[in-house]
Specification:
This protein has about 425 residues and is an all-alpha fold. It contains 20 helices and no strands. The N terminus is likely disordered. Helix 12 packs across helix 18. It has a single domain, classed as Growth Hormone, Chain: A, CATH 1.20.1250.20.
Length: about 425
């Protein structure tokens, strides 16, 4: 299938859609935001529980990184691509409801696990379930809101990440100290099941909105992944957007995966104390930053769209400086302040990146495009980051005077990857500007 040279500019035509944000659109957005919060909460539960799980099963950092991150990531990304393709062809709201039920049930089984291998298999089930939730959610929101409002709507959706991380960190920390890590997982898994029913009963499957100015062949829901990949590589803006979002998840969420353990080891905190410190930062400052991002996207909705990418680039650069300082200091009071500055910035990229992605892809490729982004981003933050940090920490520990500090030194080195992420967002903005987007 050939791709016309004007296909991208056509995607972003101001009159590209007559869809307006109806009351049903807002209801859908709020429900899907809640579902996203449950998704992120279930992830943060495992990262918060690294230390008690490691101690019970006598694991190395590399092994616990594989269990909590890589096991989920491998099957998340492996299932994500075919499920993303399925989302462009099937009823998306039923798909989301089924996905929520699966990953919530698998989280319950994580809590019931009595051995490393049982926990590993249940964690794999969580990954497969989560893979079916996000691409169709992005696609539904894109069909509910016209192009100029998509970055705004998906920034609202992104608030689910900060709220979910808050409950995942604070809730898991409290429940673990009071009842143990297994009970913690049971509670979080059971809390997710009612949301599966809510999706089935309260969301109406929208008609797929085909933006004007694009070949009908590209709009078709039958476009293949090969055609979607080719389309992605032909657009330099899309390439740099996906690269930037991939690296920023390694820098931000990959580092945060180990932050609870960093606080426990470096500052001798309990899991509950560390979770209690991090939870409000995610919930209060993270949500506040997402609201600010929503307002910025509203202000930029009538501006050239490359400014959204520039906004992410500059804020990522600022956050990188905070993250470097965080792991360079050995004073808890300074680290605490820097956490309040660093963590909220890690949420900014979500809405603008997904919004730009949905605008740069034609309707028939949107869920597959989201699946591609989720594939690369989750390889970075769920597979590479947990495993690489764990391996490097195990390597550094016996070679320094205080082995407990190995994790801090490794995280300090990883903090510099934020500069790489900022570069890709600037490159995305530059190519969008050349194409007058």
């Amino acid at each position: 299938m050939s791709i016309p040279s004007n296909s991208i500019s056509g995607t972003l035509s101001p009159s590209a859609s007559s869809v307006v944000a109806s009351s049903g659109a807002w209801t859908t957005l709020f429900i899907l935001t809640a579902v996203y919060a449950i998704n992120i909460a279930d992830r943060y539960v495992l990262s918060t529980l690294i230390e008690p799980i490691k101690n019970e099963f006598q694991l190395s950092d590399a092994s616990v990184g594989f269990l909590t991150g890589v096991a989920l990531a491998i099957f998340y990304v492996a299932a994500g691509l075919p499920l993303g393709a399925l989302a462009d062809r099937t009823n998306r709201k039923r798909m989301i409801g089924a996905a929520v039920a699966v990953w919530s049930a698998m989280t319950v089984f994580c809590g019931l696990s009595s051995s490393f291998w049982q926990l590993l298999l249940a964690r794999i089930g969580v990954g497969i379930g989560e893979a079916g939730g996000t691409p169709p959610s992005h696609s539904i929101i894109a069909d509910k809101f016209r192009p100029k409002l998509r970055a705004f709507a998906l920034s609202v959706y992104g608030i689910g990440a900060s709220v979910g991380a808050w409950f995942g960190a604070s809730g898991a920390g409290y429940l673990n100290d009071a009842y143990g890590w297994r009970t913690t997982l049971l509670v979080f898994g059971l809390c997710g099941l009612p949301f599966a029913l809510l999706v089935w009963l309260c969301i109406r499957e929208p008609k797929r909105v085909h933006d004007e100015g694009i070949s009908p062949d590209i709009h078709s829901e039958n476009t293949s992944f090969r055609e979607t990949f080719r389309y992605t590589l032909q657009s330099r803006a899309l390439f740099h957007l996906i690269a930037g979002a991939t690296v920023v998840t390694f820098w931000g969420w990959g580092i945060l995966w180990w932050t609870t353990s960093f606080l426990v080891r470096t500052y001798s905190m309990s899991v509950g104390q560390a979770g209690g410190m991090l939870g409000p930062i995610h919930g209060l400052a993270g949500t506040a930053m997402m609201v600010i991002t929503v307002l910025v996207m509203l202000l930029l909705r009538s501006k050239p769209m490359h400014q959204q990418s520039s906004f992410v680039a500059w804020t990522t650069l600022l956050g990188t400086l905070f993250s470097i300082a965080l792991f360079a200091t050995d004073r808890l009071e300074i680290a605490h302040v820097l956490l309040w500055l660093f963590i909220p910035i890690t949420y900014i990229y979500i809405g603008p990146s997904i919004g730009l992605l949905q605008n740069l892809y034609p309707a028939g490729m949107r869920a597959k495009g989201s699946a591609i982004l989720l594939f690369t981003a989750n390889i970075a933050n769920l597979a590479i980051a947990p495993q690489l940090v764990g391996l490097l920490s195990d390597f550094v520990a016996p070679r320094i005077g205080n082995p407990a500090e190995s994790l801090r030194y490794v995280l300090l080195g990883c903090a510099f990857t934020g500069l790489w992420a900022a570069y890709h967002y600037w490159a995305c903005a530059r190519h969008m500007k050349r194409e007058s987007l």
